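Entry 12.
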Amino acid sequence: MDTEAYLLRRGVAGNFIRPRWAIALALPDGADDFGRWLRGVLEDPLVKAMMRRCLLTRPQLETLLIDLFAEDLIGRKLGAEEKASLRLGKKVSRGSFNRTLKQARLNVIKAIYTVLLLGYIGVLGSTELEPYLELGSTLKRLSNALREGEMSEEAISALKEEVISKLVELSRSRALSGREH
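Predicted 3D structure (tokens):
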């Protein structure tokens, strides 16, 4: 396994991609339940909103989720053919699945290196990034609320609406300019 794939599988996946609450949302008993879980994740309004400005395509995110979660949620080791068969909609070959997975991993690594670079050169300390940091805090609160189950459905819905509204606002190309939109 190459170094980038190893980092993604061992370090990066555990810290950035794999929120603890994702597994707690549902524990599928088999491939059918996993398919429902996967569809639910991909149809989540927050996921859809973030995907509009994300480096990952929907097939890449779907493939990455299958690679990271399928074995744990189904409860057994899966081969590459079986993982490829879990893709929603149009079925893909093992080779296509693996190419899409490689692209997804590289895009995640590039995004992480972008954040690291911005931190190193001092951009992350900039006041223009405060709204993004606040959004990150709100997403963390939402994640904790989903994992802990301590908020009412109404409060969670309100928090989701707040996040979506902020995502729309921050997706404008002038959001980092420091000027009003």
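Annotation: The mean pLDDT is 80. Residues 3-120 form one domain.
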